[in-house]
């Protein structure tokens, strides 16, 4: 897959053979997104065309909404998104920043300069796709574009809603973020179609876990990827190609009056120092909320129970 950064409209070069162009912002590349690429692959085989994507490295909301650090956090790393695009059959990935200037482009100019300018013969987009400063919809796109436009309906599934979240059946990035925000890892993974994960470096912490018989690796995230809600989780850790079952806590460690958010992983059946090493945390299920214990003995008893649940967990 070739990745092409478009700094401006002047960087656009027409593909002479023509393209099937998939449009949208693909944070996490979940099951709903996959439906677009499945359709694109079918069309590519029939029409003998390459598949391309025109998308953005960061959320378009950054150009419209009052800034919140939450807007910078993704559902997957850049490396993982590139790998997933390639796995979905993408030949060319066009990336352009969603700036105020980009947002001010008229719909007809976007179609002419970007879509037709890239050499698109077929467009594939979701039912809720919008474009141009007029915020035109998929029906407008079909009228303006000279080629064929495919409008892909949403993927729906009636799964449990998170507490205090509106029930919706559409699989979407916002629904996955809601699931993570309430700690429902099972739901997030079901909607994604794969296991949510984080990557980070092992750094020095307070070393309390070692004294309790549960040494933990303290993780500093290396990219702006969301974390699930505070709690204790069943996880797998990938280190140098090996997979280890583990349990992971997210929170401020209120038992010891912690003030900073910590991400700590207790890796089962592993010995050795990992400081400075890079590991991946694969989130499988939630065990419990973070709790303030009244003493060391009650904390250790709970950790023993957590470990049993994590070791016995199966899909």
Question: How would you describe this structure to a colleague?
Answer:
It is a single chain. By secondary structure, this protein is α/β, with parallel strands linked by helices. 27% of the residues lie in helices and 25% in strands. It contains nine helices and twelve strands. It has helices at residues 31-47, 78-87, 100-103, 107-115, 138-144, 173-181, 185-192, 208-212, 296-312; strands spanning 2-5, 19-23, 50-55, 92-95, 120-126, 148-152, 197-203, 217-221, 231-239, 242-251, 262-267, 278-288. The protein has a six-stranded parallel beta sheet with strand order 1-4-3-2-5-6, sandwiched between helices. The protein has a six-stranded antiparallel beta barrel with strand order 7-8-11-10-9-12. Helix 6 runs antiparallel to helix 7 (185-192). It is elongated and about 70 Å long.
TL;DR?
With 315 residues, the chain is an alpha/beta fold.
The overall pLDDT average reads 90
Strand order of the largest sheet: 1-4-3-2-5-6
What is the approximate shape? elongated
Give the helices and strands as they follow along the chain: EEHEHEHHEHEHHEHEEEEEH
Number of strands: 12
Can you summarize the main beta sheet?
6 strands, parallel
- Amino- and carboxy-terminal Cα gap: 33 Å
Please compute the radius of gyration using only Cα atoms. Answer: 22 Å
Low-confidence stretches: none
Helical fraction: 25-40%
Question: What is the SS-derived class?
Answer: alpha/beta
Beta-strand percentage range: 25-35%
SS element count, helices = 9
């Amino acid at each position: 897959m070739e990745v092409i950064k478009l700094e401006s409209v002047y960087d656009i070069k027409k593909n002479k053979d023509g393209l099937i162009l998939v449009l949208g912002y693909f944070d996490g590349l979940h099951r709903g997104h996959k439906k677009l690429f499945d359709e694109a692959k079918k069309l590519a085989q029939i029409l003998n065309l390459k598949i391309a994507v025109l998308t953005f490295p960061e959320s378009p909301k950054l150009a419209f909404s009052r800034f919140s650090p939450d807007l910078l956090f993704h559902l997957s790393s850049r490396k993982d998104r590139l790998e997933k695009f390639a796995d979905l059959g993408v030949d060319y990935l066009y990336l352009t920043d969603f700036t105020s200037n980009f947002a001010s482009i008229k719909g007809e100019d976007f179609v002419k300069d970007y879509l037709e300018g890239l050499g698109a013969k077929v467009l594939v987009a979701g039912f809720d796709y919008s474009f141009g400063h007029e915020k035109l919809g998929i029906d407008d796109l079909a009228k303006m574009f000279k080629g064929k436009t495919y409008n892909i309906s949403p993927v729906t599934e009636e799964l449990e809603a998170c507490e205090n979240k509106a029930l919706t059946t559409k699989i979407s990035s916002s629904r996955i973020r809601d699931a993570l925000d309430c700690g429902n890892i099972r739901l997030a993974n079901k909607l994604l179609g794969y296991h949510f994960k984080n990557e980070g470096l092992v750094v020095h912490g307070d070393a309390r876990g070692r004294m309790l018989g549960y040494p933990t690796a303290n993780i500093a995230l290396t990219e702006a990827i969301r974390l699930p809600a505070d709690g204790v989780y069943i996880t797998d850790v990938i280190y140098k190609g090996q997979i280890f079952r583990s349990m992971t806590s997210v929170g401020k460690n209120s038992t010891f009056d912690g003030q900073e958010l910590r991400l700590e992983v207790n890796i089962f059946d592993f010995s050795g120092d990992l400081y400075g090493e890079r590991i991946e945390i694969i989130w499988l299920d939630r065990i419990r909320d973070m709790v303030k214990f009244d003493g060391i003995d009650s904390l250790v008893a709970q950790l023993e129970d957590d470990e049993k649940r994590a070791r016995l967990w199966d899909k």
